[in-house]
Amino acid sequence: MILLKSKSCFNQIFIRLKHRNHPGHKPRPSAISLRPSLPDYFVDEATYPPVKPKFPPGEFANDYDPKLAWIYYDEGQKFHSLKTIQERLSVLAYLNVQQTLDDLKQRKTRFYPIYKLSALSKSPKTLPFNQYITKSHIQLIDQHTKLLSDKESYQKLDYNLYEMIRSKVKQIILSNYQRELKNESIDYNVPLHEDSYRPEVLEKRAKIDREHKFSNLLIRDILNFITSALSSHDSNSHLLEAQYGVDVDIKSYWKRSGFKNEKPRGAVHPDPDTIRFQYEDIASYQIKSSQPLKPLYELNNPECSKKVEDYIFKPVVFKLFADHILPMQVPGHWYGDKREFNYMTVFNTTRMNAYVNDMYPDYDDKFEFLKSMAVNSAHAELTAQAYYLGFSMWKELTYPLMAQYIFTDGKNFSIANYQLNTLRLWNKATSLTNLCYITEPEMLYDLNEDKSEIKYFNDELFNKIVNCLLVRPVQNENEIVSGYSELDYMVGGTALRPYLSVQNFEKQLTQRHQLMAISLYELVKYDKPTDYLNLRSVSDPVGMRPKFQRLYDKYTYEFRDIVLNYYPRDYYGFRLVDRMLKKAPKQTAKFWDLKNPVYEWANVPPPDTNNIPRNIQLPTF
After folding, report:
1. 556, 96 in Cβ contact below 8 A?
2. Which of 12, 244, 328, 508 could disulfide-pair with 251, CB 3.0 to 4.6 Å?
3. Which is more confident, 200 or 512?
4. How many CB atoms lie under 10 A from the CB of residue 597?
5. Residue 44: phi, psi to the nearest 5?
6. Structure confidence at residue 546 (pLDDT)
7. How many whole angstroms separate alpha carbon 525 and alpha carbon 528?
8. Is the pLDDT of residue 531 over 60?
């Protein structure tokens, strides 16, 4: 036994010696090695790449989902990498539309519901809800709070000019009423027999339409004369250079957070806390200027951070319903107009008064409906204006946007100022609040029974209206934005448009990129998919022309066709293009998601080429 153990020990020693003498054996380094000489640029402590922060730049609540915050941030970066407003507005619209393939390779359209708003609130107690979805603090004008027009005074005008304007306005009022009594207005409707039956609802609607039309004409006649008379003086050159419009479309789209617990329709993945709103209405009269009005407060003023109380309910409680529509931003003008800033907008309240008196005759606080109209209309117009200036829900305002509003039925007038301070309504941690200041309705005049004489004229209210038209826009951008630098925002931008580098549309973009932007913008702007489809398939047999049952299928067809025709295939990747051309069955849902291909070329400059597949007339600005 002892011999066996000794033999095994000798074998182990022999194996170790044999391994140590092997040519490939490397001796172990000494336990304590000398420190090698390192280059001078080596440091004692290791440096690591920066750690990605929990939240992207901006205000976020501590309990906000970091993943969702970075989704919004990346979405904003891709959105603002687009060069022109035309492209941004088009992509914003199609962000609400997605398309996929089912198992039978049939295209299916997925779209998010959007709640439709207008100037008219359809139920009482809607004002707190409208304040919440627009994040607006509303306040009545008193001796402590003044309008923007209070800084101007009609007393600076020549006395003869003032008296002439005042007397002429009275004549305009009387002449309009006398013309209405004599039924001198042109009516193209076919006259009915006396014994013809018309339902009471139609009679009531026709009466409201006549009153609305009459008040619109009266409002325009009054304001047209006042602005014409005031613009004759050099001190009021801003009225001479302004742009005037009637029956102006106002459309705006935004998101609002705070609806996760209510779970309304439209609160979908990836952000079930927000729902979408689309405002659409018509302004009776609008004045636009090339320079903005000076805001009442700067963004760092405590007045711009007043808290708006939460008033969260499902929108259907207030008779607001969702529809499948495309988001649109129209502040009363199309992009490309030289006068992009609101100076004054007038809304007709005739239909609102008729609706309230008919539906809620015993409701005491009818002024609440007018406040809701002021909040919704002013917020919608300035939000759309901000998008046209290059801002968005992802890129916050760098200065407040100010506007003047008049709400009238031709006889009772209410003046309001609205200051837009924030667009980040999807983020509940945003500290800024929008401000709205409004006066109670006052009667401008009162007529006798036969409407042949004015027995009362409110000179104080008339002076306020004149003061609103005497407010001058800022002459220098530094009055609103001080210390502006392109390096802080976007190279090529300006103080009033810091996130918009393309100021000259025709000179700074290649022809192909111009056609791409115009095609997308015209598609959403004019809303005529059928004409475009007929144009694209005019040479195809009738049986092979595209037919779509859904309206959104027409939109998505045009959008995909325009993108593929006007942008090079290299930007979509070789495999993706090869799959498109060969019509391979391996088509995933992401391939048919129409917003992803746009983002793939958003950060890449367009190529210089004249290979244009269609002849399109470029607009001239």
Report:
1. no
2. 328
3. 200
4. 21
5. -70, -35
6. 45
7. 9
8. no
341 near 384, Cβ under 8 Å? no
pTM of the predicted model over 0.90: no
Span 203-221, average pLDDT: 91
For residue 165, which amino acid is it?
I
Question: What pLDDT sits at residue 420?
Answer: 96
Residues with Cβ within 8 Å of 79's Cβ and at least 6 positions away in sequence, in order, are: 88, 91, 92, 392, 394
**Residues in the chain, overall count:** 621
What is the rounded distance in angstroms from the CA atom of residue 511 to the CA atom of residue 617?
A: 11
Instruction: Give the pLDDT confidence of 464-520 residue by residue, as tens digits.
Output: 999 999 999 998 888 898 878 776 777 678 889 888 876 665 666 655 556 555 555
CA distance 210 to 587: 56
Would you say residue 406 has pLDDT above 80? yes
State residue 235 phi and psi, 5-degree precision. Answer: -65, -20
Q: What beta strand segments (E) does 93-229 contain?
A: 97-101, 107-111, 114-117, 136-140
CA distance 143 to 148: 14
pLDDT for residue 609: 35
Q: Which tokens sit at 507?
A: 């000179």
CA torsion angle 120 123 126 130 (round to 10): -30
The amino acid present at 523, given as its one-letter code, is L
Distance set, CA 497 to CA 385, 452, 485, 500 (Å): 11, 52, 12, 6
The closest of 304, 294, 250 to 147, measured between CA atoms, is 294
Token pair 């498109």: residue: 580
Q: Is the dihedral of CA 168, 174, 176, 179 positive or negative?
A: negative
Whether the per-residue pLDDT at 64 is higher than 70: the answer is: yes
Residue for token pair 């019509």: 583
